[in-house]
Amino acid sequence: MLGCEAMRRRALAGLVLSLVAPGCARPNAGERPAAKAPDRVEPVVIAPKPVEAGGSLAIAAVFPTLGRYAVSGEQSLKGAQFAVEDVNRAGGIHGRLLRLAAYRTGSYFVDARQAAADAVRDGALAIVGSNSSELSAAVAEEAEARGVLQITNVSTAADLTFDPRTGRQRPFVFRMCASDEVMGALLAGFAVEKLGARRAAVLYEIGRTYSARLARTFGARFREAPGREVAEFHYLALETDFRPQLRRIKEFRPDVVFVPGSFPDATLVAAQSRELDVHARFLGGDAWSSPLLFQRGAPPGEAYYVELCSPAPEFDRRYAQALGSDPPGCRAVLAYDAVHVIAHALSRMGRLDAAALVGDGLAATRRRLRDTVAANEVDGVTGRIRFDARGNRRQGVALYQVETGPEGQPRALVRGWLGEP
């Protein structure tokens, strides 16, 4: 992308050329004019084979496997695949196999939106995905408009389950995790009630919705307690030197420093805080969840963060054995449970004949499936699963504390649960 100065220079050059040599703007005889730029960005979607009516029961999985969200997308997709394998190993649903129709996309919202539209057209009964709030919002627009159930595994944007422009609920959109608003409020409550904090500094990434929402919610909840003060500081994307902000934070003398950013940002902030002798407890959201957290240096005081699910040791071992890689945090297991919720609802609906999977019958089946999911309560790998009136899973978050291990390396240990179990 051109910077502002480069664009100004290009515009100026074009203006001068048009003034002093207008004839140069025309192609010479026999020369082909430059091709016109495309009017739209072509979506990146790798679609599976279409669903055969009357055969297996198809659930679409819409996850990115290219671009910035690819790692999380692959982990989420693998969790969904595990769930379908387990359902089919147990005999399927009323004699029919469950099919996971995987729509692999790029990491841009137009990719996710196109994949959702394709999944609806191809006959999917429901959609699992995506793993990013930006992509899930694009899927949600299609799911709601077409009357198809969507369950996202780890998208936390509060306005995902309702239309941010109108405030109206999206009845067909559900999520398997706590929202940004829930996380921020629970962390603030923990800081006030358990840590006894009276002064909180919030250092967030300006321009990143996730970070700004967590900062706003945390600050609002913290200020509700009598005698509490909050000071907000921000940084830009790709910024790596946080010492100017940390010097001001040190002057504020906070009891806690909340950094609702990514684990690389938190790691740099921690190391530079130790350098500047900023003594406070550090808090973070689910984006801190990574084995690489604080590998370049731990903060000077205690550090806590929240995660979207409780540990699932058996599932993690299965994932590690199958892929030969580290456990994926909550992404895969929550995708697993999302498929489990859909399969359980399909089982409750009874056997579906061929007419229920095409045309008007398919539309009616999709509505029944949505209603059954909304009313059901299911025991999943991550615990009890039930949804509130807005499609949000009724649950809190797991609390982790980061401490120094026997060999001097940081390690995260679960310390409890915040909010509704």
Q: Which parts are unreliable, with pLDDT below 50 for 5 consecutive residues or more?
A: 1-37
Helix content: 25-40%
- CATH topology of the largest domain: the name is Rossmann fold
Strand content: 15-25%
Q: If strands are numbered along the chain, what order do they take across the biggest sheet?
A: 8-7-9-10-11-14-15
Number of helices: 11
CATH class of the largest domain: Alpha Beta
> Helices and strands: which structural class?
alpha/beta
User: What characteristic shape results from the CA principal axes?
Assistant: elongated
Mean pLDDT: 89
Task: Give the strand tally.
Answer: 15
Characterise the protein shown here.
The chain has about 425 residues and is an alpha/beta fold. It has two domains: about 45-175 and about 315-385, Response regulator (Rossmann fold); about 180-305 and about 395-420, 3-Layer(aba) Sandwich (Rossmann fold), CATH 3.40.50.2300. The chain is built from eleven helices and 15 strands. The protein has helices at about 5-20, 70-90, 110-120, 135-145, 180-195, 210-225, 245-250, 265-275, 315-325, 330-350, 360-375; strands at about 45, 55-65, 100-105, 125-130, 150, 175, 200-205, 230-235, 255-260, 280-285, 305, 380, 385, 395-405, 410-420. The strands form three sheets. A seven-stranded mixed beta sheet has the order 8-7-9-10-11-14-15, with helices on both faces. Strands 1-3-2-4-5-6 form a six-stranded mixed beta sheet, sandwiched between helices. Strand 12 (about 380) and strand 13 (about 385) form a beta hairpin. Helix 2 runs parallel beside helix 10 (about 330-350). The protein is elongated, with a radius of gyration of 25 Å. The model is unreliable at about 1-35 (pLDDT under 50).
